[in-house]
């Protein structure tokens, strides 16, 4: 169970309650961390590689949905809970989350922060590594979750193992469509000719698969049907 900790007047932290996590929360609230580099920066979202006491972490900040997040729960907290459920079911291909912080203004959540494990490795580059990625996706799907952003840089190879990053590990009503979009996004964003049918051939019998084709390949559909050979 996650422990809720007020770490400042406007900051609420969530962690498993370990002393090491509470220490990291304290360092975060006091601004005692060093930014090594910004990995991503766009409107409403920033991802940094940071250092705390000589150790590297990923710190992600996202704009929240205000009162809606206060009512339904923030996406950051949902990610944390989904990850813990996956770990509880034996899925080891994921990063650790050390804490989630919600910054509030009144009753509304203004921003969220996640401090995550930094996994050092490289994105897949060979067909063999992509096959391991597809095995990892299939395992994730079998546990009732989908990635939501299947592009090569969101998979890290370390010592031959595949780790999934930058995912909320979504579940629920959108699962069927989400799983199919995972498969098609990976195919679309990869230069290699991946053996998609080998791992996901059963998906083609789902109406959600063809809806996903329309959503992921809309530009290609306008330019002709040659691309269908890759996905059907």
Describe this structure in words.
The chain folds into two domains: 3-117, Phosphorylase Kinase, domain 1 (2-Layer Sandwich), CATH 3.30.200.20; 127-231, Transferase(Phosphotransferase) domain 1 (Transferase(Phosphotransferase), domain 1). It has helices at 19-29, 67-72, 75-88, 127-142, 175-188, 196-200, 207-216, 218-223, 228-231; strands at residues 3-8, 11-15, 34-42, 45-52, 55-66, 97-105, 108-117, 155-158, 161-164. The chain is of the alpha+beta class and 232 residues long. α5 crosses α7. The chain contains nine helices and nine strands. The strands form two sheets. Strands 1-2-6-7-5-4-3 form a seven-stranded antiparallel beta sheet, sandwiched between helices. 37% of the residues lie in helices and 29% in strands. The longest helix has 16 residues, at 127-142.
List the helices and strands and how they pair.
Elements: E1 3-8, E2 11-15, H1 19-29, E3 34-42, E4 45-52, E5 55-66, H2 67-72, H3 75-88, E6 97-105, E7 108-117, H4 127-142, E8 155-158, E9 161-164, H5 175-188, H6 196-200, H7 207-216, H8 218-223, H9 228-231
Antiparallel strand pairs: 1-2, 2-6, 3-4, 4-5, 5-7, 6-7, 8-9
Helix pairs in contact: 5-7
Organism: Propionigenium maris DSM 9537
InterPro entries: Kinase-like_dom_sf, LipoPS_heptP_kinase
Pfam family, one: WaaY
| SSE string, helices as H and strands as E | EEHEEEHHEEHEEHHHHH
Average of pLDDT? 89
Number of domains: 2
Structural class: alpha+beta
Helix content: 25-40%
Spatial sequence of strands, sheet with the most strands = 1-2-6-7-5-4-3
Contiguous runs where pLDDT drops below 50 for at least 5 residues: none
CATH topology of the largest domain: Phosphorylase Kinase, domain 1
Write out the CATH superfamily name of the largest domain.
Phosphorylase Kinase, domain 1
Strand content: 25-35%
- How can the largest sheet be summarized? 7 strands, antiparallel
Q: Give the CATH class of the largest domain.
A: Alpha Beta
Shape: globular
Termini Cα gap? 43 Å
């Amino acid at each position: 169970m996650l422990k809720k900790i007020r770490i400042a007047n406007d900051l609420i932290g969530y962690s498993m309650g370990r002393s090491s996590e509470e220490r990291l929360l304290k360092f975060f609230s006091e601004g005692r961390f060093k930014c090594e580099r910004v990995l991503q920066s766009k409107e409403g979202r920033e991802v940094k590689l940071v250092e705390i006491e000589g150790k590297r972490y990923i710190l992600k900040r996202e704009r929240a949905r205000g009162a809606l997040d206060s009512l339904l729960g923030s996406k950051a907290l949902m990610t944390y809970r989904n990850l813990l459920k996956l770990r509880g079911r034996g899925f080891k291909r994921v990063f650790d989350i050390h804490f989630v912080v919600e910054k509030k203004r009144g009753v509304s959540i203004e921003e969220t922060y996640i401090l995550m494990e930094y996994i050092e490795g490289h994105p897949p580059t060979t067909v063999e590594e992509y096959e391991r990625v597809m095995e990892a996706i299939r395992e994730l799907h079998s546990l009732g979750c989908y990635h939501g952003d299947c592009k090569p840089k969101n998979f890290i190879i370390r010592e031959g193992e595949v780790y999934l990053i930058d995912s909320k590990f979504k579940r629920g009503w959108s699962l069927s469509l989400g799983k199919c979009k995972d498969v098609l996004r990976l195919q679309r964003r990869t230069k290699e000719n991946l053996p998609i049918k080998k791992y996901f051939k059963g998906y083609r019998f789902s109406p959600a698969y063809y809806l996903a084709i329309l959503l992921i390949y809309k530009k290609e559909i306008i330019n002709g049907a040659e691309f269908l050979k890759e996905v059907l």
